[in-house]
User: What shape does this take?
Amino acid sequence: MIIGDADFWKNFWPNWWSNFSADLIVGIFLTSLVAWVLRRRQRVDLTMGTTLRVMEDGRTRAFFSIENRGNVVMRKEDAHFHVFVRERQIPLNVLSKLTCRRLKYLNGTYVELKGTLNTSVFPSNATWVEDIEVSGTDFELHDFLYYLSTASGIFREGLRLTGRLTRFRGLPV
Assistant: This one.
């Protein structure tokens, strides 16, 4: 006595292959959708700031730092920075030692300092990238220009003249 459907094995393999292919297509679609949503949630947002410090010996230094305002860790060598300092703001003894590129922009000559991150920058953290001796603390916003380039794009806040400039006096480094 047979207690089962006699047509089971005739329909098993065609149904199994159709279910498998449907599951495969839906799985690929859902995986792609989830990956796309996760990529959209990753926000790369960098900003560069300038801090002026008057040293104990009377010299003034400009310190440049990169702040990570996004939610993605910027790994070592992920971001490349270009800082442009107006040439007239750099003392002659420092200017004579520099081997940097000089270029004309906004009716002035600028000295370019460039480099790559040498350490990782985690979200909501900042890191120092470059410093240079300058001639005083009296500056205009056009005296420091910069842009950052990453695999996610170019950040040109400094070239649009919306950079941040802070001043500190008498802080030793």
Remarks:
- The radius of gyration is 28 Å.
- The CA atoms of residues 91 and 135 lie 5 Å apart.
- The domain at 46-169 is CATH 2.60.40 (Immunoglobulin-like).
- The longest helix spans residues 8-41.
